[in-house]
Amino acid sequence: MATSMDSISCSICLDPLKDPVAIPCGHSYCMGCIKDYWDQDYQKGVYSCPQCRQTFIPRPVLNTNTLLAELVESLKKTGLQAAPLAHCYAGPGDVECDVCTGRKLKAVKSCLECLASYCETHLQPHYESPTFKKHKLVKASTRLQEKICSRHDKLLEMYCRTDQQIICYLCMIGDHKGHDTVSAESERAERQKGEKQRIQEIEKEMQEVRRSVKSLKRSAQAAVEESEKIFSELICTFERRCSEVKELIKAQEKAAVSQAEGLLKQLEQEIAKLRRRDAELEQLSHTEDHIHFLQTLQSLCIPPGSEALLSITVNQHVSFEDVKKSVSELKNQIEVICSGEIALISAKIPCS
């Protein structure tokens, strides 16, 4: 069976095992790496496996695993390299694995229970060991301390609605005792639900406004069409009345002109008679017979009724000023009525 790279690598330094040792749980590490790891837990007096977290009391005695050491040396001779790819190392802006020593790998997850971040290799115990089954893993983050209560050094996992603060469990039974407290998860769910409800309410209001706008547009269009119809009827009425006034004026003009033409005809007939009489008198004036002159002149006298014709005259003062004045007064009255009605219409239309 081929030996994999992981089988000869230390899960702490991620390099090929140097002076390999096996601890009681069966996991193997470099002698120096596991010693340094346990030296950090010296004051606690409890020593654990970096991978499976199994604890040991007292501190296990370490002995070199000669068989594994020989295997590592053998594999080294074949040229097998255990170094990880360069892109797996943590760079600027990356979250570093808290377990790696030396050059650290990029962390892929952070544990809210351990308050530590892990690379793929050091994360495996959280997936494999029942000890970490209840630990909550989140996306690798450098802001884990923000999730810890600065007073009790406990995970911030509760929310006080009374004081609107994120608190830990000890805060809940301490300063916030008796307050309206819920889990941070519940508060988040409630707030997200509230945001969704608010969005739905606003969307509903928007739909109502859109419906109102459509109804308003239909109503306005109907009012415009009806107003155009009424004003068109008014225009027709005024045009008809205008025609009637013109007909009255034309009729008055026709009557006056007819009267004048009749008088002119009579006067022309009278002038013709007078011119004939004048011609006869002119001929009579040349006679030397005085008796004949007088007898003829008497027969040429103006017949009765001729004087009455001379008194017939045309009324030269026929005028349409009264008509123009009446039409002007009608215009003014209509303008006053229209202005008043337009003001009433404007008052009835609600302004935004």
Count of helix runs = 8
Report the sheet-strand fraction.
Answer: 5-15%
Instruction: Give the spatial strand order of the biggest sheet.
Output: 6-5-7
| Parts with pLDDT < 50 across at least 5 consecutive residues | 80-86, 304-311
CATH topology category name of the domain at 1-83? Herpes Virus-1
Radius of gyration: 62 Å
Question: What's the count of strands?
Answer: 10
Distance between the termini: 85 Å
What integer is the average pLDDT?
A: 83
Order of helices and strands: EEHEEHEEHEEEHEHHHH
CATH architecture of the domain at 1-83: 2-Layer Sandwich
**CATH classification, class level of the domain at 1-83:** Alpha Beta
Question: Which structural category do the helix and sheet elements fall into?
Answer: mainly alpha
- Output the CATH homologous superfamily of the domain at 1-83: Zinc/RING finger domain, C3HC4 (zinc finger)
Kindly state the percentage of residues in helix: 40-55%
Tell me about the largest β-sheet: 3 strands, antiparallel
Global morphology: rod-shaped
Coiled coil: 192-226, 250-284
Domain B box-type: 144-184
GO molecular function, one term: zinc ion binding
Protein name: E3 ubiquitin-protein ligase TRIM47-like
Written account of the structure:
The protein has helices at 31-39, 66-77, 120-128, 169-172, 184-284, 290-299, 306-310, 321-348; strands at residues 20-22, 28-30, 47-48, 55-56, 109-111, 116-118, 137-139, 158-160, 165-167, 181-183. Residues 80-86 and 304-311 have low confidence and may be disordered. A three-stranded antiparallel sheet has the order 6-5-7. The protein is mostly helical and 352 residues long. β1 (20-22) and β2 form a beta hairpin. The protein has a domain at 1-83: Herpes Virus-1.
